[in-house]
Amino acid sequence: MKINAKTSQNIAFSLLFLATLLIVVPVGLIIVIIIKKGLPAINWQFLIDVPRQGMRSGGIFPAIVGTVYLVLGAIIFALPIGLLSAIYLSEYSRDNFLTRLIKLAIVNLAGVPSVVYGLFGLALFVVFFKFGASILSGSLTLGIMILPIIITTSREALESVPYSFREVSWSLGVSRWQTIRQIVLPNAIPGILTGTILGLGRAAGETAPILFTVAAFYLPQLPKSIFDQAMALPYHLYVISTQVPNVDEKIRYGTALVLLTLVLFMNLIAIIIRYKFRKNKKW
Fold it and tell me: pTM for the whole thing?
């Protein structure tokens, strides 16, 4: 039996809607459960106090501060290097076998398990460079982990800027670098920020890399330098969920809720900045 165009369109829309539900509903349920079970633990003392009684009470302030330090350090390291690499691959490099191989390798690196990056950071930064288990080692490891994401998304954002913009700029006698800085980059910033948002989310939620390079099991005081160890929310959540007995359920879910809120807050700031730049796009 032949299916007409309208029927096939309805079937396609129904399948797409079902696929969307299969993704959205489980995520929504997870968020609802975390909020329902974690909200009773959220109060001012929980957010600004240090862990007490073997992490069975008190707060998670050192873990929050450590997570912020690690994420900011990773972005400070990864964003400039990733952006410069993307500019070179997009604007300066020739399209040959070596360049295509490098691009393929960068895409593949984005799919490497985080535990591999953790072992790499342990071998390179902790042991070889002798930074020890520290915020510096953890930030550099997280930065390398999110570097492929930033390079790939930034390169795609740069290549999405119409080539005619460059041609017009060159015809006016503007140099290649000035064209990139004044024409290409301002129009590519929304896409670059998209990669930064993805990197933020991954860096803030990973446990394996910080487990090998920075995370402390219990460290109530705040770090004083980049060479100190620090607590971090992902590892702290793992510890109180698996290593410390008799921890109240609301503390575990409250920690998860704070981590989720922190990631969403960082993403929201980046999205607002991206929206402001997107309004200034010239096409």
Answer: 0.88
Residue linked to tokens 């009684």: 53
pLDDT digits (tens, 9 = 90+) for 182-229: 889 988 888 888 888 888 888 888 888 999 999 888 888 888 899 999
CA dihedral 224, 226, 232, 234 (to 10 degrees): 180
175 alpha-carbon distance from chain centroid: 34
Q: Which amino acid is at 131?
A: F
The per-residue pLDDT for range 28-69, each reduced to its tens digit, is: 999 999 999 999 989 988 999 988 887 888 889 999 999 999
Q: How would you class 156 by CB atoms within 10 Å of its CB: exposed for 0-12, middle for 13-18, buried for 19 or more?
A: middle
Q: Residue 52, by phi and psi: left (phi above 0), alpha (psi -120 to 50) or beta? A: beta
- The set of residues, in sequence order, having a beta carbon less than 8 Å from that of 214 and lying 6+ positions away, is 66, 70, 133, 134, 135, 137, 138, 139, 141, 229, 230, 232
- Dihedrals φ, ψ of 248, to 5°? -60, 135
Give CA angle at 18 (17, 21), nearest 5°.
Answer: 90
Q: Helix or strand or coil: residue 55?
A: coil
What tokens appear for 164 in the block? 């005619």
Superfamily of domain 42-278: MetI-like (1.10.3720.10)
Q: What is the 3-state secondary structure (H, E, C) of 191-241?
A: HHHHHHHHHHHHHHHCCHHHHHHCECCCCCCCCCCCCCCECCHHHHHHHHH
What is the C-alpha to C-alpha distance for residues 66 and 148, in angstroms, rounded to an integer? 24
Residue 235 burial class via C-beta count within 10 angstroms: exposed 0-12, middle 13-18, buried 19 and up: buried
- CA-nearest of 247, 217, 245, 243 to 230 is 217
Which residue bears the tokens 């873990």?
A: 63
